[in-house]
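Hi W., the 6-deoxy-beta-L-fructofuranose complex you wanted:
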Amino acid sequence: MSYRIPEALIGEENAGRAAAQGEDYAALGRRLARAGVDVETITAKVAAFAVAVPTWGVGTGGTRFARFPGPGEPRGIFDKLEDCATIHQLTRATPGCSPHFPWDKVDDYQELTERAAALGVGFDAVNSNTFQDQPGQPLSYKFGSLAHSHKAVRDQAVAHNVQCIEIGEKLGSKALTVWIADGSNFPGQSNLNRVFDWYLESMSEIYARLPGDWRVFLEHKFYEPAFYSTVISDWGTSLMAAQALGPKAHCLVDLGHHAPNVNIEQVVSRLIRVGRLAGFHLNDSKYGDDDLDAGSIDPFRLFLLFNELVGASARGAPGFNPAYMLDQSHNVTDPIESLMVSAMEAQRAYAQALIVDREALAAAQAENDVMLAHRVLKAGFVADVSPILAEARLRNGGAIDPIAAYRASNYRKVKAKERPAVTSSTSGIV
Ligand code: LRH
Ligand code: MN
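Structure:
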């Protein structure tokens, strides 16, 4: 039987922190009450907030230069599920994990579903992969996949996506995420209009195979691995595709997939307006698609994003039902610690946005009282909502301090013994 963190250990860890937590929570409650905010309302919403963990994120990530695997690396999807379950056990914020195929391919998906259920987690959106060639794959994706100039390659990519839907149905997923690397490195290499026709043609075949209650998430990215043009490069192109395909098609926003300084919260506001926001791959970045931990570089940007989402929810925006996922690469930290902290940073941005006095904000905006409007918004960001996040975890049966509990459990050391060390330090993200 592989090691799981004993619930008793979490209880002991919490017992030592409960008094301080109670004090901090009560003090925050009093302060928020003075501002007309009911702390219990915020805590309940935060406790119900869920963000999915990427199965490919629990193994050490790398770059094109190198990857430095750590101790106790997951050897496959069953180890990855254990680690995803540990993240949820301590944070109570990540009940779902998002699998990627064929990286997570197994022979018996019933067994996988049962193992996940036994570990207390489920499966969120499934991710297809036509950006790598698999051993024995008949046709290469070197020059594209769903938008390849050869129909046979497009058909192969369509078949893979249909297979991902069939696997997802066995796992209980309700969405397929399609990110393609298709693009060009040289002007003239591809017909910029024709490739979009081929993409739509391929996606419409995939769309036709979606079960009634499924959605398909189109993920745009402005460059990499293509360095001159990318077929689905921005939200406008993604929205054109979603509207051409049908009501089940939505636009997924990966925070690292935009040109520097793009106002992503405004992009999100536009997608919400037309009811086509699929949701997010949350992460952070300073330069390109760095896949750094959410909220680690620019937490104010994450707050501004959740401010748009809370505003949309408050006004009852039609079709507003975003899916939240993390999509990160952990090259220098313990992936479990990074994913726990990132899930908590998403909760933090959500709680801060819930604190914003929306009436006062709307009034100041109407009067063009710029400084007042900015300060009313900023008041949410500068509030330390840590006691609310801890209270939500505690009430959900998690750890007041997940990192401390995780380290006290020696989970990584035990897994290092259970899982033979991975010697090869190949390059590449996973
Ligand atoms: C592409 C991407 C996509 C995943 C991959 C692992 O950059 O964000 O969402 O398939 O990372
Ligand atoms: Mn992504």
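DSSP finds 16 helices and eleven strands in the chain.

W.
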